[in-house]
Specification:
Radius of gyration: 16 Å
Shape: globular
Cofactor: Mg(2+); Mn(2+)
Pfam families: NTPase_I-T
Keywords: Hydrolase, Magnesium, Manganese, Metal-binding, Nucleotide metabolism, Nucleotide-binding
Low-confidence stretches: none
Organism: Desulfobotulus mexicanus
Strand content: 15-25%
GO molecular function, one term: metal ion binding
Number of strands: 5
Structural class: alpha/beta
């Protein structure tokens, strides 16, 4: 089965490949990648913006010959009763040319300084992580991710992304 991911991020691609194989639903898996526009700000804020970004990416890369277009988008969403009021989560959307199949992954609260930089100053998460002194890597989302830094790599960005893919696959049933 041919899946096309609407991102060139190698972590998202590998997470998709692993999750598709782990699902045991496909005898063969081929994943191609295209740089698809999300149609939302570089740092989505809120469920709607995050889901819209994933949907737009999935739809943009679907065409005849592709089994499913796939969009994976991380965003900051308001969550009451948390220290900062915001959590980071990932949405995955599969699109088959007619229907969308959506899944969400786990969420984690950002450190206060990073949360403030993203929510109040409008920074993208990678830039906020650098500005707050958590990493010198300008593209932390292309490697272990902020979650990798915060957990000492007990959970990496790939680990964190895969559940959203599995949840979207569950919607295919």
């Amino acid at each position: 089965m041919h899946f096309c991911l609407g991102s060139l991020n190698p972590v998202k691609k590998e997470a998709l490949i692993q999750a598709l194989k782990e699902s045991g639903r496909f005898s063969s898996v081929h994943v191609s990648c295209e740089n698809a526009p999300s149609g939302v700000p570089d740092q989505p804020k809120g469920f709607e913006s995050t889901l819209t970004g994933a949907r737009n990416r999935a739809k943009a890369v679907w065409h005849e010959g592709i089994f499913m277009g796939v969009g994976i988008e991380s965003g900051i969403v308001p969550v009451p009763l948390t220290r900062t009021g915001f959590m980071n989560l990932t949405a995955c959307v599969f699109y088959n040319g007619r229907e969308y199949f959506t899944g969400l992954g786990p969420a984690f609260e950002l450190p206060t300084k990073i949360s403030r930089l993203v929510t109040e100053e409008g920074m993208e998460l990678d830039a906020a992580v650098q500005a707050a002194g958590f990493s010198k890597n300008p593209r932390i989302g292309y490697s272990e991710g902020l979650i990798g830094i915060l957990t000492g790599n007990a959970v990496t960005r790939m680990d964190y992304t895969k559940p959203s893919i599995h949840m979207a696959l569950a919607a295919l049933c």
